[in-house]
Amino acid sequence: MEQWEVSTSLGTTEAKENTSSQIVNRSCENLECYMVLTKAEKTAIGSICFLAGPITLLENALVLGVIAATASLRQRPSYLFIASLAFADVFASCFFTTSFLFFHLFRRSDGPTAYLFKLGGVTMAFTTSVGSLLLTALDRYLCIQQASSYKVLLTRRRAVLSLLILWSATIFISFLPLMGWRCPTVLTPPCSRLFPYINQVYLACWTSFTLVLLALILCAYALILWKAYRHESSMTSLQGAAGTGQARMRMDIRLARTFGLILLILVSCWLPALSFMLADVSVVLTRTQQRAFAFCSTLCLVNSAVNPLLYALRCRELRVALLQLLQRLCEIGRCRKSTEALSPGLPSTEDNNCTAITEDETPGNRTTGLNSISEMVNNQQPNIRQ
User: Fold this and answer.
1) CA gap 88, 82 in Å, rounded
2) Which of 27, 167, 186, 165 minimizes the C-alpha distance to 116?
3) What angle do CA 261, 265, 269 make, to 5 degrees?
4) Can you tell me whether residue 191 is helix, strand or coil?
5) Please, are residues 281 and 208 in contact by the beta-carbon 8 Å criterion?
6) Measured between alpha carbons, how far is 31 from 341 in angstroms, rounded to an integer?
7) From CA 30, how far away is CA 24, in angstroms rounded?
8) Does residue 25 form part of some domain?
9) Are residues 263 and 308 in the same domain?
10) Domain shared by 80 and 199, yes or no
């Protein structure tokens, strides 16, 4: 009798588990259990994507165009890293915006292969973006720490090689689920509650890898600030009382404010989404937490929109190159208008004056100034040696 009761209870438990699994499978049909946004949330998040997506695409495409059109910028490793960052953010704006809107707003579900391909593109774009930020931080650290041998240590060939390694590694890591490392139970545990078909072990590995990249970025900028503080302290001791009476702001304070802003934006945009990913590995997320993650993931797109303003357009050389490019385009437009207005047989003085403006002839290149944050430190080294 006891054995019958035990077997009956076990049978009831198994029946409940089978029933619950059937309910989960039925609710996840066409990935509906991952489409958790309400109508108001769709409007808010859709507005962010429709606004940040095109802005991110235009800003980063502009940076890529300026670097590609300027020979002096293409030869420098610093701008190669910035170009890699802009290229990754262009991918992020395309892949993330389209896949996110089609899935969460228009509720269009794809098969496992199509979905994992789109997710792999988003993962590749964001991972390469963070990796390019790390290379940019390491470039600035080397420029300050090894100022005398910087050009020997970081050549253009080594910069291109590091970018090839970065892109190859991120592409391989991002498309591992498409190549077979996916959830064995399709849509039930141990699958992720944030991404369909994604194994929790893979999600934990990718999140840990991204956190390591962010930690290395923080360490690099902390070392830059420490080096800048040492330079400023040595200058103050050499200049004496005359130097302390200057009205200008200390260089290390300016660097602290700049890097503080960079790190604040980076952590604020990435840490919330990564926290939800780590929680998804250890606990079962509720629908409210899933909706919160959908909002936090759009902050990664916002970070891609802010990156050109922080890393590219703050550089004086790139701004000068942008103005030169716009000036050349205006001159070409004036030439075309003047030639169309005049008869073909008559020479024009405007045509003779319409020549391409080279970088050496523009007044912008004769001006002196700080081209990047790292040069704020390097330009003070001769004073220290004196």
Assistant:
1) 10
2) 186
3) 170
4) strand
5) no
6) 62
7) 12
8) no
9) yes
10) yes
Nearby residues of 370 by Cβ (< 8 Å), 6 or more positions away: 316, 376, 379
**Those residues with Cβ within 8 angstroms of residue 309's Cβ, 6 or more apart along the chain or in another chain:** 59
What are 191's strand-pairing partners?
199
In the Cβ-directed half-sphere of 178, how many Cα atoms lie within 13 Å? 18
User: Based on the domain organization, do 327 and 307 belong to the same domain?
Assistant: no
Dihedral angle sign, alpha carbons of residues 285, 88, 206, 275: negative
**Residue 242, domain member (yes or no):** no
The helix (H) or strand (E) run that includes residue 251 is: helix 251-282
Cα R_g (the chain), whole angstroms: 27
Structural domain for 333, as ranges: 316-370
Average pLDDT of the segment spanning 295-318? 87
For residue 33, give the amino acid letter.
C
| One domain for residues 80 and 170 | yes
Would residue 377 count as lying in a domain?
A: no
Residue 185 has a CB neighbour count (10 Å cut-off) of 13
Nearest residue to 259 (alpha-carbon basis) of 146, 377, 126, 87:
377
Q: Give the global pTM.
A: 0.76
> Do 184 and 122 sit in the same domain of this protein?
yes
For 225, counting Cβ atoms within 10 Å of its Cβ (0-12 exposed, 13-18 middle, 19+ buried), the class is middle
Residue at 378 is within a domain: no
Decide: 255 and 224 in contact? Cβ < 8 Å.
yes
The CA distance from 134 to 263, in Å, is: 12
Residue 199 φ then ψ, to 5°:
-75, 140
pLDDT tens-place string over residues 251-301:
556 667 778 888 888 889 999 999 999 998 888 888 888 889 988 999 999
pLDDT at 344 over 70: no
Q: How many CA atoms lie within 13 A of 91 on its CB side?
A: 20
Question: Is the distance from CB of 158 to CB of 241 less than 8 angstroms?
Answer: no
CA atoms of 349 and 337, how far apart (whole Å): 13
* 202 confidence band (pLDDT: 50, 70, 90): very high
Residue 190: is the preceding peptide bond cis (ω within 30°)? yes
Residues 300 and 355 in one domain: no
